[in-house]
Design brief:
By secondary structure, the protein is an alpha/beta fold. It has a single domain, classed as Rossmann fold (3-Layer(aba) Sandwich). Helix content is 53%, strand content 13%. Strands 3-2-1-4-6-5 form a 6-stranded mixed beta sheet, with helices on both faces. α1 (8-17) crosses α2 (20-30) and α1 packs parallel to α3.
């Protein structure tokens, strides 16, 4: 089964829209079509974004729902420690480097992102960095 790292922007988009490609990808994860590989710093970023008051109000996110989602992620995702040093790979946005470390340490088959800093790499140490749509095509095949 494919092991996949999702950039937090993909995950948050799937949670708040509940329709569209990102939500469909989360449904496929829940159906166990791929293994979600993640790490605590990525989960912390997802939780921080979902707890933003403006986002919570606009998308009617209740604190209890966020807690349940984070529990689900900690229970169902393959959580790995980030051990690989990738510092300096993305000087324009070092915060994105955690996704690269996760892909390497988790031996991910894909890193799915909508972030230009990551997508511009094309691949990182053998892991393709692809858009959401491109990864959905992979799953269709």
């Amino acid at each position: 089964m494919l092991q996949v790292v999702l950039d937090s922007n993909i995950f948050v988009s799937g949670v708040i829209t509940r329709r569209g490609a990102a939500a469909h990808l989360l449904d496929l994860w829940r159906e166990r079509r791929f293994v979600l590989v993640s790490a605590e710093p990525i989960l912390a970023e997802i939780e921080t974004v979902l707890r933003r008051p403006r986002l919570r109000e606009k998308y009617h996110l209740h604190p209890e729902d966020i807690v349940q989602l984070m529990e689900l992620l900690r229970r169902e995702a393959l959580l790995i420690p980030l051990l690989t040093n990738v510092s300096g790979t993305i000087p324009a946005d070092p915060a994105d480097e955690k996704f690269l470390a996760c892909a390497v340490d988790g031996m991910a088959d894909y890193l799915v992102s909508g972030d230009r800093h990551l997508l511009d790499l094309g691949e990182f140490r053998g892991t393709p960095v692809v858009t959401l749509r491109a990864f959905l095509e992979v799953l269709r095949e």
